[in-house]
Specification:
mainly alpha, 3 helices
Length: about 110
């Protein structure tokens, strides 16, 4: 849902951002409950990603479509890891214009 990085810098802003993520998460779960009842499957079998995708693209008044049903795999265990590591770039700690000038100077050998 894009919650890896919080964008606000004030305490009040961060709290608002967290409340909004909580609200959206609960709305997605409510859509999953409605879809599960309509499709006659357990809520745990409805795809969270499918429900979130529908919510992002739905217009007011759209009917709830059939959401993706996750296959029942009782013995499946998967580690929660990231397969690819992020690129190792430095953080931007100075203004972009200053960093551009430093790159320009380094390229020219000044």
């Amino acid at each position: 849902m894009g919650m890896e990085v919080l964008h606000c810098q004030s305490v009040e802003g961060v709290q608002k951002e967290l409340w909004m993520f909580l609200l959206v998460y609960n709305l997605v779960r409510a859509v999953m409950v409605a879809a599960a009842a309509r499709q006659k499957v357990a809520v745990s079998r409805i795809s969270f990603a499918s429900a979130l995708h529908w919510m992002r693209s739905a217009r007011p008044g759209d009917a709830l479509p059939r959401l993706a049903v996750v296959p029942y795999r009782p013995d499946r265990l998967e580690p929660r890891v990231i397969k690819r590591r992020p690129k190792q770039y430095d953080l931007m700690v100075r203004p972009r214009s200053v960093m551009r000038e430093e790159l320009r100077a380094a390229r020219l050998g000044v």
